Description:
The chain is mostly helical. About 75% of the residues lie in helices and about 0% in strands. The chain is built from 8 helices and no strands.
Amino acid sequence: MSKRRPADEGSAARYARKVLHQALTDGAPPGDVEPLRNVFLELANTHALQLLAADDLENAHKVLSDADLQAAMNPEGPLAAVTANNLACYYRRKGQLNEALKQLRRASEIEVLSSLPRGVADTQINMCVVLSELGQHQSAKDHALRALTLIEAETGNEPIGALPIERVAVY
Length: 171
């Protein structure tokens, strides 16, 4: 199976956005719109991370801003937390550490309020990085330890080295 290129993900995200927009324009019932929104958010977030990895910060921000608008329709959903976490990655790359921290706190609040297992360790790792860059090393260490505990619980104490590298990568 071949790996998708960023352009492929971008095309898929644009198509999903178009289908979502059409459903909203046509007045589709919420039960029909929400799955379309979720597909768009998944694709948009994946594409945005690929753009960040390729140092295309301008387009990453456009994609994430669009995703954030859609995520606001379900502000306590898991994809709202993912989008906030990815926005934090963008702001960190731009050197806007306080805005990155704000987005990570938003992601963390969503995860706690919604009892979300997905992405919680990722948020803690990113929080560690940003806090360390802000010189708040003790707090960064606390978040690193939380992330480690969450990953160990999630993997049944499997060694960190056994995890896929994208699972522990920080953008």
